[in-house]
């Protein structure tokens, strides 16, 4: 067999696994970004304060912090394919928990469901991400990662629309009104059928993954060896500061993607549950822009600098903008149609454009020159996802307990120090090779 034929067969044999993995990335994005609709919906149904509502996101993202390393240990024990199936099975259990949570309207039960969903997501992420890199040629790994990223964020556009159509479509006239107990019961019960359907779908997918023709990957280095390298990894400022930068980036990404609905609800916008779609659409556009421009026309470092500056400018616009102005929506009527949204909401959505290429830029800059420490450094960087737990939490604390739009608007001030640190990392931190 010739070398060309061998490469062609390998490419064909990898095609089905990549389609399966692509589907998993879409599911990951769908479940993750549905939180942007779920948060204001539960805030309305359960009469939650901004702080209590932020716990819906906190319980989901905090799972990364304490389940990332155990997930890696599970993968080493059962393999990547079984790890994916177990992650999906855990997510199925979490979806089923939403049923008694909706029936009883018990907030702690919703938080438990979110925590288990986050744990299942972490296990699935731990298994599926290395697959993307190692299932095909190393030289095309970046292209595969970019495609998966677009699928993940694209699911973020679809999820709020589906949530609204299946759950919120009959309750648009409840915005800005005091709900009766009958309305509360109806809204809570509307979660049951969609989450039951989600549980069945993910459960079937878990069974299918277990039977799918996915080749097993070689196991990674032992955990003890990785622990021994941790101190050495942290001696590299570009990596250590990169972990902080990614933590803060995910914090602002989740604030922009998942609190926009709560802010829209406070502003009396009936379509509050689809607002996350606007942020995600901007992220997808930014992702495509990054693929086209980096590194052909602009370096990763310069792109990160531009993103941080744009994030700062938009943040100032959100904080000091006029909630009664619709100038941007009117200017973009050729895109938005007749949709009338306050300038501040659209500026939050535009943050998706500023955030899009931050992760792809920081990751390689942080791992530059790490050599044999790359795998341990990557694990630390991935743990930066836990920033998603704290960003909305700090936003809610800065907003106070009133739930008024003007107070929620002022809460976005927490994004400024985050973008300032990302700017510092882009200009100086990524170049630091020594703490001296």
TrEMBL record:
<dbReference type="InterPro" id="IPR011701">
    <property type="entry name" value="MFS"/>
</dbReference>
<dbReference type="GO" id="GO:0005886">
    <property type="term" value="C:plasma membrane"/>
</dbReference>
<feature type="transmembrane region" description="Helical">
    <location>
        <begin position="82"/>
        <end position="101"/>
    </location>
</feature>
<feature type="transmembrane region" description="Helical">
    <location>
        <begin position="379"/>
        <end position="398"/>
    </location>
</feature>
<dbReference type="GO" id="GO:0005354">
    <property type="term" value="F:galactose transmembrane transporter activity"/>
</dbReference>
<comment type="similarity">
    <text>Belongs to the major facilitator superfamily. FHS transporter (TC 2.A.1.7) family.</text>
</comment>
<feature type="transmembrane region" description="Helical">
    <location>
        <begin position="410"/>
        <end position="427"/>
    </location>
</feature>
<feature type="transmembrane region" description="Helical">
    <location>
        <begin position="239"/>
        <end position="269"/>
    </location>
</feature>
<keyword id="KW-0812">Transmembrane</keyword>
<dbReference type="GO" id="GO:0055056">
    <property type="term" value="F:D-glucose transmembrane transporter activity"/>
</dbReference>
<feature type="transmembrane region" description="Helical">
    <location>
        <begin position="303"/>
        <end position="321"/>
    </location>
</feature>
<keyword id="KW-1003">Cell membrane</keyword>
<feature type="transmembrane region" description="Helical">
    <location>
        <begin position="345"/>
        <end position="367"/>
    </location>
</feature>
<protein>
    <submittedName>
        <fullName>Glucose/galactose transporter</fullName>
    </submittedName>
</protein>
<dbReference type="InterPro" id="IPR050375">
    <property type="entry name" value="MFS_TsgA-like"/>
</dbReference>
<keyword id="KW-0472">Membrane</keyword>
<feature type="transmembrane region" description="Helical">
    <location>
        <begin position="154"/>
        <end position="172"/>
    </location>
</feature>
<feature type="transmembrane region" description="Helical">
    <location>
        <begin position="192"/>
        <end position="209"/>
    </location>
</feature>
<dbReference type="Pfam" id="PF07690">
    <property type="entry name" value="MFS_1"/>
</dbReference>
<feature type="transmembrane region" description="Helical">
    <location>
        <begin position="15"/>
        <end position="34"/>
    </location>
</feature>
<dbReference type="InterPro" id="IPR036259">
    <property type="entry name" value="MFS_trans_sf"/>
</dbReference>
<comment type="function">
    <text>Intake of glucose and galactose.</text>
</comment>
<keyword id="KW-1133">Transmembrane helix</keyword>
<feature type="transmembrane region" description="Helical">
    <location>
        <begin position="107"/>
        <end position="133"/>
    </location>
</feature>
<feature type="transmembrane region" description="Helical">
    <location>
        <begin position="275"/>
        <end position="294"/>
    </location>
</feature>
<dbReference type="InterPro" id="IPR005964">
    <property type="entry name" value="Glc/Gal_transptr_bac"/>
</dbReference>
<feature type="transmembrane region" description="Helical">
    <location>
        <begin position="54"/>
        <end position="75"/>
    </location>
</feature>
<dbReference type="GO" id="GO:1904659">
    <property type="term" value="P:D-glucose transmembrane transport"/>
</dbReference>
